[in-house]
Amino acid sequence: MVVRRRQEFIRRDRVFGFLVPASERFLRLDTTHGPILYLEDLTVSFDGFKALNGLSLYIDEGELRCIIGPNGAGKTTMMDVITGKTRPDEGEVTFGQQIDLLDLNEPEIAMAGIGRKFQRPTVFEHHTVFHNLELAMHTNKAVWHTLVATLSGEERDRILEVLLTVGLEGHRDRRAGLLSHGQKQWLEIGMLLMQNPRVLLVDEPVAGMTPQETERTAELLTGLAGKHSVVVVEHDMDFVRSIARKVTVLHEGSVLAEGSMDHVQNDPRVIEVYLGD
Q1: Helix %, strand %, coil % for the chain, to 5?
Q2: pTM for this entry
């Protein structure tokens, strides 16, 4: 496997990140060389156990990447590092060419354009679907502003667009707590979309879903790819096969194999440590 490093993509004439204000860096995210997210030589240790062990991974702009691997392979820790929840002992995490995510805290990383959906949906159950999306909108969250703000036509159109994207246009006035498990998952994805992320990290999106909900989720995630970079961590191999374009297999904190689903599922190392016979 050819290992690409961020230095291979950086031009000598680029503007150094520290010379550009943070707000402008977020707007001017440079992905002209392909990757939007660079993880390089990441090591994370917990009481002597290496959850990540020299992990290097590159996500291209607009791609749909599936991350698989046995329990303890480092999948959750990897997402924790990307989103600022966990700081690595060593390594680099770069968003585009210029944004060092290790210099940012969790809210700043979210503002920069990285959204994360956890396995268990978190929605405002006593509010309507429409209001959940309104609350998630990437706007001024000051208390007074929230109380007195009126949606503009553009903002309302954006909410309606997201409702259509996640398939909840018929439930806009329904209380979120009355939705099915799958619908809550789609609503939370919609809430992330309201923040206009460039990268979506999605953790086990079909756990507990019906077959019909799983199929709809596959359609949703494949439809988001291209407009967003989508990274899916999942254990359901049938679901992964249905959406996979490129698959990365983690084992003991580093990349074991990478490529098409056919490639990785026929790799003897992957069969031994994860897929079985």
Answers
A1: 40, 25, 35
A2: 0.85
